Each structure stands twice: as structure tokens, then as C-alpha cells.
Amino acid sequence: MSAFVSHPLIKPNTMESRKYQESILATAASKNLLCVLPTGLGKTNIAILLAALKLEKHPESKILVTAPTRPLVSQHHKTFSHFLNIPEEKFHVITGTTKPEDRESLYLIKQIIFATPQTLQNDLEEHRLNLKEFSLLVIDEIHHAVGDYAYPYIAKAYLEQAKSPRILGLTASPGGTREKIHEICRNTGIDTVEIKTEQDEDVIEYIKEKEIDWIKVELPEAFGQIRDLLRAVYNKKVETLRRMKFARSRVTKKDLLELQAHFIKSINQGNKNGFIGISVVSPAIKIEHAIGLLETQGITSLENYWKKLREDESKGAKSLIADKIISNAMFLTRNLAEQGYRHPKISKLCSLVSQQMKEKQDSKIIIFATYRDAVREIVEVLGKLDNVKPVEFIGQGRREKGTQGITQKEQGRRLEDFRSGEYNTLVCTSIGEEGLDIPSMDLAVFYEPVPSEIRQIQRRGRVGRAKIGKVIILMTTNTRDETYYWVAHVKEKRMKSVLYGMKFGTNQSNLKDISSQDQ
Asked: What integer pLDDT is reported at residue 482 of this predicted model?
């Protein structure tokens, strides 16, 4: 029988007591901590326990919990109020939809605040919020604390203003390099790291099995013809960049994007030669993207991309479309689209979902796809299968023509409908990866591998949280699908190695100083 946490500020018989959480909590109580735990192992519970300790020690103090999206913020509010033995009226959610004058008074009268980071930054800048009385700052999905994201600003202000500051950062995956992890720690005042993986002895009993399969499909010959045309133009562009001494023998998408930024900077500084570089690298980026869509997504996504390019009034887009080889590729794409060609992943996905439903009629399935076009195509096709009730789950995104996202309120409604059984298959973009309280899935399908260890870990975390689950990764052979899978795999191994080194190495006690030396 499981033991429960016993603490005056934790509701009796509600939270299971776990030794690894207690161990991490002990560190978090004395140091600003980056807590890295796989999805489903209770990162939020550690935050709740730490909040209880801080409020026990400083009864008049406040707690601040921040997360990237409104649904995540609301989820934390729900979880904290479920476990903490504190009157409900002391909790409050604050987002950009709350009036500024109301936010200012709520910060003063409420004890546990749940808020989105941009709202907090705005209120700190406008002096509507002072963090002096907050004894704990919980930063969820702390891997966002890079660049100009609001997290570093909030953490800096908190450490400057709070009388008794303590920071707890939570994530399943902070990043694959020492530099990235150190940047996160430096930006948020983190002192030390605690990490657990699914292989650690003290967490194994809480891990549900995952069966992971990789299913390969072949690129159809008709797709190959279009790819050959696109590659011919792409290779010419890259060869031109080599002759200009701007490219090495092997050029990646990252190289092209860096070159584009370099040429734009050069133009802004008055160097007209930058225009020559841009005229080569910009179409190369567009073609590279088109090849990726063809290989990993299919004809529908590629045809939609060509449509957007034809509507593009820029000189570069018009020049690319005028290329006879590109024009031929566009013609072949349209022909295949009109004939109803789909990527072979679609038929494989249909058979996988149908088989899952036959084996278990009340299955919950989640499908991840990078692009909205693919999400919509998948929902359309799966909706024709017996007993499959798919729903599209995408972010708000940009209000582009024909690509409007869904509001956070609508996201919440769709999740509730999914939980209640109105839908049984959630088809989502990256918004389904981060932290949302999605029911444990019987089957997760990655429509394509992603070259990000963070996203790969988060996708896997949607399965096997409360029961045994299955993960299937679809890959097109001899395409970037295979490359991306191995890139993410290597990055994940490196991330764990770096984190364990930071946990047990000499840098643990003075992480911020060492990370500053890396610069």
C-alpha cells in the first residue's frame, strides 16, 4: 500500500509519498534548482511540496508559478488547489485577459499566483508587481529561458526584489548541449541540477512500460521524380555559394539560415554585395523546405506550399517560380494532388489506428505532426475510419490566410471533449507536446521524427503515464526522416550525459560561475 505525504499544508491522503521526490525536494529547499524529470514522474508535486515548506516557514509570504500558456497555467492552479490545504480564495490565475488594474490588486491580496510569463514581465516593467514577498518562484518548462523570452527577465527581477528568494525550474528536457543548459541556469539564477531518467533505480517502479517501434515506408517513384528536379536546382544554388566561398562541401539547413542572416546584416550595413548572396541563399532555403515537405509530409503539404509561393509578391519568389525546372516540379505536384496521391505514411497510419481500435475499442490515441497541413489531412482521412473520432489540436499561431489556429479557450474545450470520450484520437502539432494534462495514451504515433531531443522526449512522455503504452515512429527511408531521428537520439544521450555531469561533477556547487566562464 502506498504511503501518503504527511504535512499540515498538504491535504491528507491525497499525494503519494515517493523517495526520489523527497530527495529532490531536500535539494530544492536549500538551492535554486533545475529539476529534470521524465513526464509523469511528478515534477509538479515537487513544486507543491516546496510551496508547502516555504509557506510553513514564511506563513505571510506568497508563491508565484509561471508556465508558457494559459491552459498550462490553469492546469497548475487546478493541481495546486487539489493538494494544498489552503483556502481556495487564496489562489488566483492571472493572464493577459485579466485587466491591468485588477492584476495589480490581485498580486497584493492573493497568496498563490499562477501567471503567464509575458504578463508578469509587463507588470514588472509597469511596476504593477513587486516580488518582495514571494518566497518561491516556480518556472515550468524552463527550457524556454533563452533568448528574449520573458523567463530570464522575471528571474532576474525576482532575485533582486525578493526577501527570501527560492527558484525551482521544471522540465523534462532542457536541451542537448552543455552551453544551452548553462544558458538556462545562468538566465534564471539556478545553482544546481537534479536529474532522474527512466533507468534510475528509485524511479523504475513508477515507470510504465513503453513499446517503441519504428516503421519505415518507401518514397513513391512519382515523388522521387519531383525530388530529383528540386535537388538539381538546389545543388546549383549550393554550388554557387561554394564558388562565392560562402559554403563548405556539405551544407545544412542551419548553414543556409545563418548565411541568410549574414547577408541581411551585410545589406543593412550598406554592403550591396549582400543582395547577390541573398538572391542565391533565399531560393535555396525555399527549395530545401519543399524537399522536406515532399519527403516527410506528402503531396498535399507540398502543393499548399507552392500555392503560397505563387501568391508571394516578392522578387525572390517570382524568380524561383520562373525557373523552368521548378515550374516542372510544381506541375508534377499539381497532377499528383489532383489524382489524390498521398504520402505512404497516411495509409500506414490508417492501418495502425484501425488495428489499435480493433484490439481495444476504448483506446486513446495521440498523433504528432509538425505541420498543420498534415494535421488537417490526417484528421480528414482518419475521420472516414470506423470507430475513429479524430480532433485537430493546434496552437493559436499566426492569423495567416487559411491557416488560422484555435484559441486557448477552444483548445481547453477540445481537451475536455477528448477526456470525456467525444473524441478518441488527438491529432496535434507541437502544442500537444508540452506539459498539458492529456490523458495517458494507449498509442502515440510520430508522423515524422523531429531533430529536437526536447520535442522527442516530450512526445514520448504522452504515453505510458498510467498504463503500458505504445509509441510508433513513422520514417521514410533514405530521407531526412532517418537523419532527424538519429540527430535527436544523439542529442538526447548527450543531454543526459551533460546533466549527470553537472549533478555529480565539481561544477554543481558553483554552476553559475562556471557557466559564465563558458562565454
From this structure: 87
